[in-house]
Amino acid sequence: MIPYRDTVPLRYTPWVTWTLIAVNFALFVLVDFLPERTQVHVTYLYGLVPARYGYPGWAAWFGLSPDDYTPLVTHMFLHSNWLHVTLNMWLLWIFGDNIEDRMGGIRFLAFYLLCGVAGAGLQIFANAHSTTPLIGASAAIAGILGAYFFLLPNARIVIWVFMLPIFFQVPAIAFLGIWVMFQLYKITTGLSSGAAFTDVAWWGHLGGFIAGALIHRGFLSADRAASFSGRERHAP
Which of 215, 207, 49 is nearest to 116 (CA)? Predict the structure, then answer.
């Protein structure tokens, strides 16, 4: 089962959300056409390698500058495969436009990037010794989910039973609550099993969500707030 769409109508054109989706797909295609060895180099150079900052001696030996913090941002624009980038951009398509609707484009972009950095920071703290590059927009998108959880808890998310013509609606607060519990489950099972890290940045997801939940109100546009009524009206 996957989210298909939400039922909240837009009042403004989500130019930044659309641009982020286009840029992520364009960069994925560009990197995908590079030779495999170059792809690996790009992933280590612009992806987020926690040990780069947790173990600067190793980073210098490996050829990564521990004083370069640009990967905290650039890792959000790299993805490992078509499924990875498509799933991330699908969630951004569903949830990002409504948050941009309430923040405005510039505020939304700053919020998106800050949530991604916050998620990256928690991932580094949790797995400082990891030499595996972390890539993807998941933490930034998790921040959007955190904002959505509090701004639009009563919105309806249309769920599609994959490969079947079956659709049903659930409240956003329920869908996102389950999403958070799943992240916590993966983190706790990883800790209890003694796994140092996995190929999914669960801590980054949680960090992005928490950041989005905590800071989203500081990015809301007062001008746009006047155009929204106290009670959201949802399309059927």
Answer: 207
Please say whether the beta carbons of 197 and 181 come within 8 A. no
Query: Both tokens of residue 28?
Result: 């994925």
User: 224 to each of 96, 143, 212, how far by Cα in Å?
Assistant: 16, 20, 19
Residues in the chain: 236
- Please tell me the pTM assigned to this model: 0.91
- Cα separation, 132 vs 140, in Å, equals 19
pLDDT the model gives residue 56: 85
Query: How many other C-beta atoms are found inside a 10 Å radius of the C-beta of residue 129?
Result: 11
* pLDDT given at position 143: 98
Q: What is the mean pLDDT of residues 45-54?
A: 92
Sheet bearing 156-161, strands edge to edge: 2-6, 156-161, 166-171
> Is the Cβ–Cβ distance between 128 and 55 less than 8 Å?
yes
The answer to whether 138 and 205 have CB atoms below 8 angstroms apart is yes
Mean pLDDT of 193-206: 72
- pLDDT band per the 50, 70, 90 thresholds, residue 194: low
Residue 176 pLDDT more than 90? yes
